[in-house]
Automatic annotation (TrEMBL):
Catalytic activity: L-threonyl-[protein] + ATP = O-phospho-L-threonyl-[protein] + ADP + H(+); L-seryl-[protein] + ATP = O-phospho-L-seryl-[protein] + ADP + H(+)
A molecular-function term among this protein's GO annotations: ATP binding
InterPro entries: Kinase-like_dom_sf (IPR011009), NEK_Ser/Thr_kinase (IPR050660), Prot_kinase_dom (IPR000719)
Keywords: ATP-binding, Kinase, Nucleotide-binding, Serine/threonine-protein kinase, Transferase
Protein name, UniProt field: non-specific serine/threonine protein kinase
Keyword field contains Nucleotide-binding: yes
Keyword Amino-acid biosynthesis: no
Segments of skewed composition (Polar residues): 391-413
EC number per UniProt: 2.7.11.1
Organismal lineage: Eukaryota, Fungi, Dikarya, Ascomycota, Pezizomycotina
Residues of the Protein kinase domain: 1-222
Alphabetized Pfam families for the sequence: Pkinase
Amino acid sequence: MLLLSPNTGTCFSASDDVLASLWRLSSAIEAVHNFLPDEYKVRKIGCRYDIKPKNILCMNGKLVLSDFGLSRLRPEEESSRSLFPRGEGSYIAPECEPSDKDFKPARVGRASDIWSFGCVLSEVLAYLSAAPGDGPDAVVKFREARKHNLGPLISRHFHTVDGIAPAVIDLLSKYTADPSSTAVFKSLALLIEEILQFDPENRPSASTITRRLYQLSQRDVFDKICVNFESCLAPLDLDLQIEFRRLKIWGEIVGLASEGRDIQPPAWLTHCHSHREYEDTQEILRRCLVETQNIRMQMDKNRNPPYKLAYHLQSILDSLWDMQPDHAKRSMASALEESILGSQDITDLLGLQEHNDMTSHTVAGHSNQRLDNYRRVAYLATMKEVAVAVTNQSSSNQDLSVDRSSLGPPTTKVNEKARL
């Protein structure tokens, strides 16, 4: 069992891969709750009923939901609620327990699966947040800390008779209340708090959880890419400076530059997307992380390498931009212009027109639109410099004299193979 293994290497190469698998696991629960296969023209709703670590397998670097013996599918027009068929263990929802009043099990549904999944996530949080190699001990300690009296029995449930178990509250508050807590663990703890609601009606849907888990795992990758960028930016390497701006702008449009609960429409991550869209975006981000790691190593060896470092990175970021709808791409292009024109180091940015590395290579997939964007940024940057010079001419401390009759567009011809 992964949670009791001393290292993630038995299934995952790193803890980051565990985070990246959680949203896939949630999407499997979502598929059970809303069974809508287009190829069969069938629409069903279902309930898994028995989600716990023992029913989650680790196969080829992925977490796989297994043992569907208690699962039920019903017509879409019916409710998923039914009498709790069977099941035991610490991960069942409060409504699965017999009532103190009549000792009869309540009617349970998809919200009960959500509770159980939140319990699993809390143990994953305990495992991942522990020091390397201490994950299993942290899980065992968390299980022991949950021991409490539930009627005449000793229980390790995540709830007591009338609320969340104190040990669970303590674990989550350790990350939600501590300012020094890492962003990814804080986001995961906040999500678990939203899931573990005593009232089933207050729990989020599986699709919402999938989106939130995807957001926190990709934000972790996004932040690491930004760290790599910041460590390898050189003052005169305009290619990397521009690509860093493009990454940040994309992150803001998508929603990765915001906290999980602070994302506002129309950010891409405020909406649910297909599994394929999630997978494609995740793969491109991973490629971007690997490429920035390579650039960082090269910069450590030579701060002024004789070759273009951002060559492959530009193509990767093109892929991220191209996945967005047209209105979002227009918004990102405008934001890039504003970012460049608002730069304090406008003189260096004017080197766009003369920067040979930027203008002397061809990248597969470049378009006339990108060439037009490049020209526009270069022209606007030049216009701003001229406007600043004209304004400063009236200053008594300004010796610059501007010949207005000679003002015109940039004199250096933009190479037809240039790209943004």
